[in-house]
Amino acid sequence: MAAATDIRKSNVILYQNVPHIAIDVEHRTQGRQSGFVQVTLRNLVSGVSTKTKFHSNDTVTFCYVESKSLEFSYADEMGFHFLNTETYEDEVISADLLKDQKDYLIAGAAYSVLFVENKPVQVQLPPSIAMKVVEASEGLRGDTASSAQKPVVTESGLRVQVPLFIKAGDIIRVNTTDGSYLGRA
Questions:
Q1: What digits encode the pLDDT tens for the residues 159-184?
Q2: 2 by DSSP, 3-state: which?
Q3: Where exactly are the structural domains of the chain?
Q4: Which helix (H) or strand (E) holds 52?
Q5: Which has the closest alpha carbon to 60: 114, 21, 115?
């Protein structure tokens, strides 16, 4: 157990028996009252952010956190399989833990996986990722006067709006925060 005043940004603590990461931390004092710590916490299981206050005499439990670089292998009914390239162990992460991140997983690509108490809790995606276009309709010849776009399907099944000149087999860069087209890779 540690004092709540020891919480710093990016620390992982147990809050309501669930691991939360501290996104923003402010130490405050109000006149003659005792100080408190206002913390914005993000639930590592559900992804929901909350603001909470800890008084200076409150105690918190810090979690053992480790980040490992794992290579995505494949997905099946058990979950998503990641290979630890140092030990060659297979780590399985459930589909409900990944949510929208599974659209950005490419076989053979390395991802940073956050472990809390030796359990995987979050896959940290890079800002952008290169993906191969597997399905694209032909662009109409006269549509180039404006910035017309068409939908394509990437190798992970993600649908992305791209310019008309992109065709099947091209490799494109996709923004992992909003799924938008960034350019050719």
A1: 999 988 889 999 999 999 899 999 99
A2: strand
A3: 2-62, 65-124, 128-184
A4: strand 49-55
A5: 21
> CA 38 from chain center: how many Å?
24
| 24: Cβ contacts below 8 Å, ≥ 6 apart | 9, 39, 40
What CATH code is assigned to 128-184?
2.40.50.140
- Within this chain, domains 65-124 and 128-184 share the same CATH topology: yes
Q: Is residue 113 packed enough to be buried (19+ CB in 10 Å), middle (13-18) or exposed (0-12)?
A: buried
Predicted confidence (pLDDT) at residue 108 exceeds the cutoff of 80: yes
Angle in degrees, CA 132, 96, 181, rounded to 5: 30
Topology, domain 2-62: SH3 type barrels. (2.30.30)
Assessment of whether the complete model's pTM goes beyond 0.85: no
Q: Which CATH number fits domain 65-124: 2.40.50.140, 1.10.10.60, 3.40.640.10, 3.40.50.2000?
A: 2.40.50.140
SS3 label, residue 100: helix
